[in-house]
Structures are given as structure tokens and as C-alpha cells.
Amino acid sequence: MILQSFLKIVIFLIFLKLTTTLALSTEPCRYTFGIVPTFHPEKTLEVWDPILKELGRRLNCQFKIKTFDTFGEFMKALNLEKIDFALSGPYHVVLAKRTKGYMPIIRNRDPIRIILVVRKDSKYYSIFALDGRIIGFTDPNAYITTIYMQKKLREEFKINFTPKYLKTHDNVYRHVLLKLVDAGCAVDLTFKRQPLEVREQLHILFQSEPFPSPAIIVHPRVPKQIKKAFVINFLQIAKEDTYAQILQKTQVPNPISANYERDYKILETFALENSTSPLKR
Fold it and tell me: 66: which of 31, 79, 123, 264 lies 20 to 30 Å off by Cα?
């Protein structure tokens, strides 16, 4: 009799736990998705909103997109751990992993290269011709396109220049076109996203060695099953025509799974944060 009563209690507790778990699972999970400021915030929202809504539908989650005007604001949000998922530049992957435990889960298949562009009708036929000129950059906190490239121009090419910070890659290209700067520093991936009439008027004066691509990183507080489901479903929708076309407008047009040791650890040797360290513990 006692045994039967005990079994009934155990069964009831198991049933209660199962029903509670089921009830909780019907509630959508909620996460923030931060995006590094490569393009204008309006353009970023327009592109990423349908992708994250579809991912949310498949994962029974809600993703709130957070855009930023500057790299400094983006890195501050990472530093304060306000972002669950983030589309990040390659060197931000290193810093966010080192300081806050973020890990890359998806990256673009192809590497990126830093480029210097000038107008095709300009008199600048080599980097050395830019000595003493004005060069446009996105942001003083952009590690690869600003800190690394400025160091390379000054130390390797031995040229002096006046930097002008223009926030987005789109602004860099347009400032070159309008002759507001003599040259502009950006990434080849964003150059390919420019309208044909923009690309036809610009000349790539310099192209760097390849760098690891941008990546989607995730905070360690996000459950493993959510991370896994996110990757599986992201890679799945990338194969579907509707979303594949949208992804072509992003920094991960050809997404694949990412691995920190294989893909990003090499960047630790650059130690670019020694020049400026906006992302610290």
C-alpha cells in the first residue's frame, strides 16, 4: 500500500514536471541580435528583418535587431553583454571571445580583403601618390579596415595622410565619388554590394592579403540547443532561393559553420587592441 502510494506520488511529480516543461517550451525564447555598423541602420534592418523573422518562426524565438551608428557603440554593447547574438567583424570575434566568452558559430565561406579605392579619373596611380592626402575610413575603432590599415600605410608604405571617419562603407565610397576625400578604405565584400554606377567610377588601388570573414557570434548564456538549432536553420534557409537572395546583400552571403581555433585564432597575433582598446573586461 505504501509502495503504491509512493509510486503514485512519483508518477504525479514526473507528470507535473513534463507538463510544466511543455508549457514553458510553448513560450517563445527572446534574444537580441546585434549587427556591426557596416551599412546604414535602415539598410541593415531592411535586409536582416526577414531573415531573423523566419529563423524566429522556425526556432519559436523572437530576435530583436540592434543596430549601431558607430563601432564604439557596438563594442560597448558587447562589453556590457547586452547582445546574445551578433554579426561581428573578424577582429571583434577575437576580442569578444577573449573578454566575454562569445564564440563564432557561422561565418562567410570566403575571406575578405581590405581595399583602397580612388576615382578612376583621379591622378592617384599608386599608394605613394596618396602621401599628404585625405583618406576616408569607416570608424577609428574598426580594427581591420582602420587600425591595421593605417598602421600598414604609415609603417610599410611610409606615407602620411589625414584620416576622415565616415561611419559606414557606403559613406566611404560616396565620399570618394564626390571628391570629398582622395581615397577610401573599405572591404572588397562591401564594394561588390555597391550599385554598378558606383563601382564603374571607382578604381581599386590596393588590395590586402586575405583575412577571416565576418562571423555571427553568440554569448555563452545562450543554451547549446538554441545555438545548434540556430546554425542548422540558418544554413538551411541559406539554401532556399528567397533567403539566399537576401543573404547576398549581407556580410555572410555564403554562410558556413565557424570554428574559432581554425578560423580566427590566427588574428590573435595581430594584437591590434594595443593601439586602442575599447573592448575590455
Answer: 264
One-letter amino acid of 179: K
Structural domains of the chain, count = 2
Torsion of Cα atoms, 37 then 255 then 54 then 40, to 10° = 20
Mean predicted confidence (pLDDT) in 228-251: 96
CATH of the domain at 262: 3.40.190.10
192 and 251 assigned to the same domain? no
Assess if residue 11 is contained within a domain: no
For the stretch 187-216, pLDDT in tens is 999 999 899 999 999 999 999 999 999 999
Supply the angle between the helices 71-79 and 90-100 in degrees, to the nearest 10.
20
Closest CA to 39 of 180, 177, 138, 106: 138
Residue 3 within any structural domain of the chain: no
> Considering the domain boundaries, does residue 279 fall inside one?
no
Of the candidates 90, 103, 91, 41, which has an alpha carbon nearest to the alpha carbon of residue 68?
41
The sheet that has 29-35: what strands, in order across it? 61-66, 29-35, 85-88, 215-218, 103-108, 255-257
As a whole number of angstroms, the distance between CA 267 and CA 153 comes to: 19
The CA radius of gyration of the chain, in Å to the nearest whole number, is: 23
Residue 162's DSSP bridge partners are 134
User: What is the pLDDT at residue 22?
Assistant: 34
Total length of the chain: 281
Question: Which pLDDT tens digit goes with each residue over 120-129?
Answer: 999 999 999 9
